[in-house]
Amino acid sequence: MQLIDAEGENHGTVSIERARELAVEQGLDLVEISPNNNPPICKILDFGKYKFQAQKKATEARKKQKTQSVKEIKMRPNIDTHDYDVKMRAVEKFLADGDKVKVTLRFRGREMAHMELGMQLLVKVKEQLVNTAKVEAEPKLEGRQMMMVVSPIK
Question: What is the pTM of this model?
Fold first, then answer.
């Protein structure tokens, strides 16, 4: 096997027994780093410290990654212009934060007879967000709700 000691010095190819002796002399562990190589590569190191540093690296990597959540904005087909503007500001804020937004239109009672109003509203939303977001799921009707999902442009 190929042996690397605690200082990073390569000892070349040595037997397993000799590698164990060197590890015991230094009071450290013999760890197989790359078993698939020919010959396999082993390193003399403090395994507890090695595991701790690997765990710290993984924690640091998790901290830096941004999770993308789905925010939902609910509207009605006959929404007032000011209410629409307030909802759109919220949508733009969510998109700026890097979140996906699910725009939901709920139809009640006789509003179901005028589905085209809901579709027009979602098309208006899509046109207003053309520079800041891309449509991930086109508007579709599910029961009494029409929904569309938009995500930020990277």
Answer: 0.58
Give me the residue label for tokens 């239109």. 105
Comparing C-alpha atoms, which of 17, 33, 23 is closest to residue 6? 23
- Tell me which residue has tokens 């403090």: 46
- Please give the structure tokens belonging to residue 152: 């930020």
Q: In DSSP terms, which residues pair with 149 in a beta bridge?
A: 102, 137
**What are 76-133's pLDDT values in tens digits?**
999 999 999 999 999 999 999 889 999 999 999 888 888 888 999 999 999 999 998 9
Crossing angle of helices 115-128 and 81-96, rounded to 10° = 50
Q: 139 and 119 in contact (C-beta within 8 Å)? A: yes
Question: Residue 148 belongs to what H/E stretch?
Answer: strand 145-152
Dig out the tokens for 78 from the structure: 């006959």
